[in-house]
Design goal:
alpha+beta; two-stranded parallel sheet; two-stranded antiparallel ribbon; 2 helices
Length: 66
């Protein structure tokens, strides 16, 4: 859940591209209908690891004013 002053609270999903469940579904050629059905709510993002071993994923969010 994301909250910000003067904006409505929003609940977002963030799926990581290297999630074993997603990788297995892609390899099996299975559709990822939950991602396609809710493109504004569910986003699959790549994950990177920096030189210090910290993992990162980013996502842009669209917030709605109250």
């Amino acid at each position: 859940m994301v909250t910000a002053s003067s904006y409505k609270p929003r609940l977002f999903d963030l799926w990581l591209a290297d999630d074993p469940m997603l990788v297995d579904r892609r390899k099996a050629g299975l559709p990822q209908v939950w991602v396609e059905a809710l493109p504004d709510q569910i986003v699959v993002r790549p994950v990177t690891c920096d030189a210090l071993g910290v993992w990162h994923a980013t996502r842009d969010l669209k917030m709605l004013r109250e």
